[in-house]
Amino acid sequence: MCRFALSGRLPGALSLVVALLTLGGGCSQGKTTGTVSGEVLYGGKALTEGDVHFHSKERGIGAVAKLDSSGKFTLADPLEAGTYAVYVTPPRPTPQDPKLGPPKKAPGPPIPAKYQDPAKSKLSATIKEGPNPLKFELTD
């Protein structure tokens, strides 16, 4: 929700800018959002490392949540309602001093390649207003 509190008179150009921001979509008024949390399982066990990505190609929006040690995730901010492609990526390698050579691959369970690509994962989530508890089960 956007609110503007203006006191006194504004110069004409500034008034126009404020009006355009208010009316022209500079605010997210009217968009329904939901909170998103859940868990990811692989082979029936919690996937304890990696990132869960939500992507809406049509709207050009998305979000990423990190998996915790129990396979659970929570998006930091509410997500706009709609349907999202979901994919899971392994943790990024930890950067290190270039003099020591390339970074070592991050440890963790392997994630099947099909789940790492939004076009191939076939995972999806429909986000609605309010809480959205999700569960994704990855298989070979």
Q: What would you note in describing this structure?
A:
The chain is built from 1 helix and 9 strands; from the N terminus they run αβββββββββ. The protein has 140 residues and is mainly beta. It has a single domain (38-138), classed as Immunoglobulin-like. Strands 1, 2, 5, 6 and 9 form a 5-stranded mixed beta sheet that branches. β3 and β4 (61-66) form a beta hairpin. The termini are far apart. Residues 1-28 have low confidence and may be disordered.
Concise account of the structure shown:
The chain has one helix at residues 12-23; strands spanning 33-42, 45-46, 51-56, 61-66, 72-74, 79-80, 82-89, 123-127, 130-138. It is mainly beta. Strands 1, 2, 5, 6 and 9 form a 5-stranded mixed sheet that branches.
